[in-house]
Design goal:
GO terms for molecular function: ATP binding; ATP hydrolysis activity; transmembrane transporter activity. Its EC number is 3.6.3.41. InterPro entries: AAA+_ATPase, ABC_transporter-like_ATP-bd, ABC_transporter-like_CS, ABC_transptr_haem_export_CcmA, P-loop_NTPase. By secondary structure, the chain is α/β, with parallel strands linked by helices. It has two domains: about 130 residues, Rossmann fold (3-Layer(aba) Sandwich); about 60 residues. About 30% of the residues lie in helices and about 25% in strands. A five-stranded parallel sheet has the order 6-7-8-3-9, with helices on both faces. Strands 2-1-4-5 form a four-stranded antiparallel sheet, covered by helices on one side. The chain binds adenosine-5'-triphosphate. Adenosine-5'-triphosphate (ATP) binds next to helix 1.
Length: about 210
C-alpha cells in the first residue's frame, strides 16, 4: 500500500499549465526525486502534495484516504520542509523549536531539543537569536525538526540541502536514509546532484510554455 499517492494532478498558475495528468505513488521505504528546470512547477507540486494548496484537478491520498477528508491525520504524519524556514529570527534556536513543537503536537523529552541542536553542530549557539546565526546555521535550526517529529512518516522536502556545508549535507543524508530504513517515505526536490545514497524514483517536470 502506498503511503502517499496522487492521481491525475493538474496545476495552472497565471494561465500557464504547469503540469497535468501527474500520477505518483510512494510506499514505505521509498524516495522520490522531483526534478525539472526553474519554474517547471516542482514547488507547486510539493505544496499540492502537502494539502496546503488545492490542485486544479486530481486528488492526493495518504494511506489511501483523500487528504482533503483526512487532513488532520495526514498532517500529524507529515513533515514539510519548504523554502521558507518558518523560524522567528528574534528568538533563539531552543525557543524556536519549543514553539514549533507546540504548534505541531510534538512533545520532546526533557533536554531533547538541546541534544538535537548538538547533533546539528550548534553547541554553544542554542541561546543566540537566529538572526545572529549564519545562513547554514539558521537552516540547521529548522532541520532539527527532522529529528524531533518522529511521528512523521511522510517527508516532503523542497531543496533541503540548500546552504548546508559538506558536513551538514552528510548529516541530513544520514537522517533521510535512517527515516527511509525505518519505513518512512520521502518526496524531495534538489538542484544539486543526488546526495542521498539510496535507490530513488524520479518524476521529471518539463518547463511548459
Ligand atoms: N502563488 C503564485 N502565483 C502566481 N504564480 C506562481 C505562484 N507560485 C508559483 N507561481 C509560478 O509558477 C511557476 C512554477 O513555480 P514553482 O515555484 O513551482 O517552480 P519550481 O520548479 O519549484 O522552480 P525552482 O526550481 O526555481 O524552485 C513559476 O513560473 C512561478 O512564477
Amino acid at each position: 500500500m502506498p503511503l502517499l499517492s496522487a492521481h491525475q494532478l493538474a496545476v495552472s498558475k497565471r494561465d500557464r499549465l504547469l503540469f497535468s495528468q501527474i500520477d505518483l505513488s510512494v510506499a514505505a521505504g521509498e524516495l522520490m526525486y522531483v526534478k525539472g528546470p526553474n519554474g517547471a512547477g516542482k514547488t507547486s507540486l510539493l505544496r499540492v502534495l502537502t494539502g496546503l494548496v488545492s490542485p486544479d484537478e486530481g486528488r492526493v491520498h495518504y494511506r489511501q484516504q483523500d487528504i482533503v477528508k483526512s487532513r488532520d491525520v495526514f498532517h500529524q504524519h507529515l513533515l514539510y520542509f519548504g523554502h521558507a524556514l518558518g523560524v522567528n529570527r528574534s528568538l533563539n534556536g531552543v525557543e524556536n523549536l519549543h514553539y514549533w513543537c507546540s504548534q505541531h503536537g510534538v512533545q520532546p523529552d526533557e533536554g531533547e531539543i538541546y541534544r538535537v541542536l548538538g547533533v546539528l553542530g550548534l553547541v554553544g549557539l542554542e541561546d543566540i537569536p537566529v538572526n545572529n546565526l549564519s545562513a547554514g546555521q539558521q537552516r540547521r535550526v529548522a532541520l532539527a525538526r527532522f529529528w524531533l517529529k518522529t511521528s512523521a512518516e511522510v517527508w516532503i522536502l523542497d531543496e533541503p540541502f540548500t546552504a548546508l556545508d559538506v558536513q551538514g549535507i552528510g548529516l541530513l543524508n544520514e537522517r533521510i536514509v535512517a527515516h527511509l530504513e525505518q519505513g518512512g517515505c520521502v518526496v524531495m526536490t534538489s538542484h544539486q546532484a543526488l546526495e542521498v545514497n539510496y535507490p530513488t524514483q524520479e518524476l521529471v517536470l518539463e518547463y511548459r510554455i
